[in-house]
Amino acid sequence: MASISATFVGFGASVNLSVRTDNQIIGKSSSLVSFGLPRTGGFPSIRTSRLQICAAKPETLEKVSAIVRKQLALTPETELTPQTKFTELGADSLDTVEIVMGLEEEFDISVEEENSEIITTIQEAADLIDKLVEKKA
Amino acid sequence: MRIGFTKMKLDCYQRTFAHSSSSLTPIQLPAHLETHLWYVKPSEVKNESLLKQYLDILSPRERENVMQMRGEELRKSALLARTLVRTTIARYQINSQINPRSLKFRKNIHGKPEVDWQFSNDSLPPPLHFNISHTSSLVACGVTVDSQIGIDVEEKHRSIKHTVLSFARRYFSKHEIQFLASITDPQVQKLEFIKLWTLKEAYVKALGKGFSGAPFKTFTIRFKEDSIHQASEIVVDSFDEPTELTSNWQFSLLELANSHYAAICTEKHAASAEGKRNVPTKLTVWKTIPFVVDECVSGTDAVKTIYG
Q1: Which residues sit opposite B221 in a β-bridge?
Q2: Quick one: which of A10, A38, B239, B264 is 20 to 30 A from B104 by CA?
Q3: Where does it reside (chain A) (predicted)?
Q4: Strand intervals (E) in A11-129
């Protein structure tokens, strides 16, 4: 499976995400980089390929990663992928709950308790967030 | 019935190692109304060959999960958690000697782990119940017979990123928010918050439903006062399911090793479920390094009962 490393610089933090080309996540590197209507601060968005179902936006993944890093006090060397499980990083139930709170604050959404079980990885968190944000709009 | 105190001299433990459960001190199952609690402190387990021995008793899946943890300390506490569960259950030598490696586990419909006893269909599964909890600095396993159990341990001074009240407003019930808001000293408020958190976690784990199955806002844990206004009992009121006999559950709250709060929630039995008198559960606590040393710490400074 091809592996691409993308470096996103934004929000005052530098986050390294490894993006793999499988159906779960963001599209191939050959996707168009389109300068469409600015969503946040006018930075470019990478169009996702149609193959992906429930693919979270790169900026969502980035924000989620930043919140997880802060909550778990991770060192910059700790590599995060969308598939990284919070438990692998040492998050216990209190940490997970705080991560959810942090995400709710950041994205102005409300996560039902019943959904907290499905937020176990960065990808799952980002997918749910995008879904909830879309519902709000 | 206190179990004696066996201790191998640390300087010769390497020679007295055995790669079998015979080096686990056998112990009798807890009685009805009795709870056993075993804990291990990862900082006290340093020997590499001992850790390898622990790795060896895990299932392949468990080993995989341990190795996926990011960082040596996290791997060690994950390893000790599985080791503690397997060796603890193996001590009870139900029917015959059990090799900790041979134990199999499964999850109930809500995802709560339980033993998948490998006896023939004729024999009834032993009525042993267990639950574990771990922080990076302490791993604990509670055991009961004929009674569901949930435990939670937290570092007393663990940091939280949000304020106590914003956390409580988001997750706790109205009564609990009021309780915490009424505490003026922020340090005391934080400690009471951690205690309440461990009690709530222990309850949902005892129910077997976990956090998402029994949202924290749907029940209140409070301290019932006796006639002289001393907190005498921890009780739970459930809003969503008033028919769920919440008087079925009893709680203990301890301070372990001066560093952690441990909450234990177990099912009350029919005899005391009427709640006429709170029949205290007998609790026995061991500090252990599996295969090396077991120390009964009940009644010592390592175990301070807060409630229960």
Answers
A1: B236
A2: B264
A3: Plastid, Chloroplast
A4: 13-20, 33-34, 45-46
Instruction: Indicate the domain borders of chain A.
Output: 2-48, 58-136
Distance between B15 CA and the closest CA of chain A, angstroms: 34
- Token readout for A127 is 């997918």
| Interval B136-195: pLDDT, tens | 899 999 999 989 999 999 999 999 999 999 999 999 999 999 999 999 999 999 999 999
The secondary structure of B186-234 as a DSSP string is HHHHHHHHHHHHHHHHHHHHHHT-HHHHS-GGGEEEEEEE-TTS-EEEE
Q: Which two tokens stand for residue B105?
A: 């586990």
State pTM to two decimals: 0.79
CA pair distance A58, A48, nearest whole angstrom: 9
The amino acid occupying position A113 is E
Residue (of A6, A93, A108) closest to B216 by Cα position: A93
Cα–Cα distance measured from residue B17 to residue A57, given in angstroms and rounded to the nearest whole number: 54
Residue B118 near residue B125, CB atoms below 8 Å: no
Tokens of A100: 């959810």
Instruction: Read off the tokens for A37.
Output: 């209507």
Taking CB atoms and an 8 Å cut-off, how many pairs form between chains A and B?
50
Measure the CA–CA gap between B214 and B187, rounded to whole angstroms: 28
Report helix, strand or coil for B182.
coil
Choose the closest CB to A101 out of B71, B134, B170. Answer: B170
Q: Which residues does chain B have with pLDDT short of 70?
A: 1-22, 94-97, 120-122, 227-232, 240-246, 270-280
Residues of B in contact with A85 (CB under 8 A): 68
Write out the DSSP string of chain A: --EEEEEEEETTEEEEEEEE-STTS---TTS-EE--S-SSTT--EEPPPTT-SSPPPHHHHHHHHHHHHHHHT--TT--B-TT-BTGGGT--HHHHHHHHHHHHHHHT----GGGGGG--BHHHHHHHHHHHHHHH-
| Paired strand residues for B201 | none
Distances in Å between the Cα of B254 and the Cα atoms of B37, B144, B261, B262 are 11, 17, 6, 5
Residue type, B85: V
Helix or strand run (H / E) with residue A86 = none
pLDDT number for residue B240:
63
CB contact under 8 A, B161 and A102: yes
DSSP, res B7: B
Alpha-carbon span B126 to B275, nearest angstrom:
27
The candidate with the shortest Cα–Cα distance to B145, out of B248, B303, B273, B267, is B267
